[in-house]
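fwd from M.: "can u put these together and see what the complex looks like"

so here's what she sent:
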Amino acid sequence: MVIYFCTTNRNKFLEYKEILSKFGVQIRMLKIKLIEIQAKNLEEVATFKANLAFKIVKKPVIVEDAGLFIKALNGFPGVYSSFVFKTIGNDGILKLMKNVKDRTAKFKAVIAFRNKKGTFLFKGECKGRIAFKKRGKSGFGFDPIFIPYKSTQTFAENLELKNRISHRRKALEKFVKFLKK
Amino acid sequence: MVIYFCTTNRNKFLEYKEILSKFGVQIRMLKIKLIEIQAKNLEEVATFKANLAFKIVKKPVIVEDAGLFIKALNGFPGVYSSFVFKTIGNDGILKLMKNVKDRTAKFKAVIAFRNKKGTFLFKGECKGRIAFKKRGKSGFGFDPIFIPYKSTQTFAENLELKNRISHRRKALEKFVKFLKK
């Protein structure tokens, strides 16, 4: 079974490929730049994009929307994580978190799968905290500043751990379970 | 002539009313929450929303999209100014700008006017810099931290100055000129 993964983020695609190959699911990267809606939550964004992609390719597609939600910053950067990463980056987040005691944060991912039958959502969350400085080289995005719950390493310091417990992994597991049915 | 101004921001509406009344243009607030696209620039967002609003009300409508673009932060918060204001606010921006020497910034506004004949865009820009602390109580949003070029006061300290030279004022003047033709 081949599923089209609509993304322009090569790192994200590789992460998917790595995880899904373990479950015998093949994906192909579909590089279309979709309009993104400015919505309050990842669910809306992912659903909107999956429907749009399906209209274009007329084949089973998945899209993913993910974000980092920092409690002390009222959920910033949230739905706009990608833009925030491109402009102020990890250094900007660390600056905003300077002298902030409550470092609670979580990553969320929503996968929207769209086929002839409809749109199906699969969600994953990974709780953790914001590090005091960037650490590690693997992964991408906010990985160097995110330490998952019960760990002392950032996602960027331990890619094996990331791929085992991440928001993305959890959402993908639910998706694979759905496919197997 | 009555034009519908589609916005959920009452402060913005009042600013428009104040400026447009001087030109004999009457506006009515149209409170519809429109889907917002996550676009690279204000022009796309405003055009998309104006077309959507026109489909709903079938009367001449304007929508405005505005943002603050800070040079040292690669254009952040830009198109997402409203979200950034709601989450990290002026304090967040000041924190990000701590120890940053180049404080250059600009406000941009794009008005999209949509009627039976099509969509027309009117742009305004106001250059200035980011203050070192919040000053003043009038205006809204990032006004307390924005000092326009050649001034020593923030927009929030001098509303009369703001309404005379702002990005919004400039865009509105172009719009009024268009209406008079």
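replying to her w this: Chain B touches chain A through 23 residues (CB under 8 Å).
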